[in-house]
Amino acid sequence: MDHLLEIHNLEVKFRLRSGEVTAINDVSFFLDQGERVGLVGESGAGKSVTGFAIIKLISKPGFISGGKVLFEGRDIAGLSIEEVRNIRGNRISMIFQDPMMTLNPVLSIGTQMTETILAHKNVSRAEAQAIALDKLKKVHIPSPEKRLDQYPHEFSGGMRQRIVIAIALLTDPAVIIADEPTTALDVTIQAEIMDLLSELCESEKMALILITHDLGVVSQVTDRIIVMYAGRIVEQGLTRDVVSNPRHPYTQGLIAALPESQQRGKTLCQIPGNMPSLTDMPQGCSFHPRCELVMPICKEKVPELIELDNGNALAACHALAKGGAS
Hints:
It is a peripheral membrane protein. This protein has helices at 47-54, 81-87, 99-102, 109-120, 125-138, 144-147, 157-169, 187-204, 215-221, 239-244, 249-256, 318-321; strands at residues 5-16, 19-31, 36-40, 62-71, 74-75, 92-95, 175-179, 207-212, 224-229, 232-238, 306-308, 313-315. By secondary structure, the chain is an alpha/beta fold. Strand 9 and strand 10 (232-238) form a beta hairpin.
């Protein structure tokens, strides 16, 4: 069975004065219709770059240097700008981190929504307004008829993010890529937005790629988790399995650092050190300078993803290959 979206050996590089650096290295995963997948990792792991590469939004000096991105069987990486535009916004929509960067402050919400619909669909302005109103209702905006005439600054942060989600829904996409959609919101509003995304995935049969550093959010919303570190996938599997039994030392560290994993009054756990920079990537496994299980081979050879649990999980760790880190 073909998957809705397939990423094969994706590689993204950036041209710097000092030479080319690799931001995404040999990343492969798939997404099925209606499925919710979480891309997880610290800042600098390559999550957002992966999301941008999927819809060919990598700007210079970055470029896709290898691999394929197959959407409904077509390789997006090989399409012209015009052909990509027919997919981006139509079939694949993206929700960005900061709604105020997405919304135009000098145009009413109704104008922004109707212009988006008219740019992508062959409908009348009256039909476009009806679609905009329907989508505002779907994201539970109160008094949506009045809200269409208001401007972004008249909404709270949570309401603005709901409007951004409504705009992403305007073309009835098959996939939504949500890049840290709750970062700027308080905890209660975060939960509401994530509940909303889950509800929409079920009701609209949409697939979701949720990009976040927050494992707590991912564990509540997604079907599968893909953990990234320094531009590579280090672990992936069913959400419940990865959260309850993480196999890679990095994933174990992320879960141990969650506040809910701690005992009251104890110091919070943390992974020592920092994510390596693209210009100073360690040889071998990029996680080895921070890993408690480091062996000589870790400093020499990049570990390959190995199948675990009868192929239901993958992890890239030399200790696992030797029968450890379980």
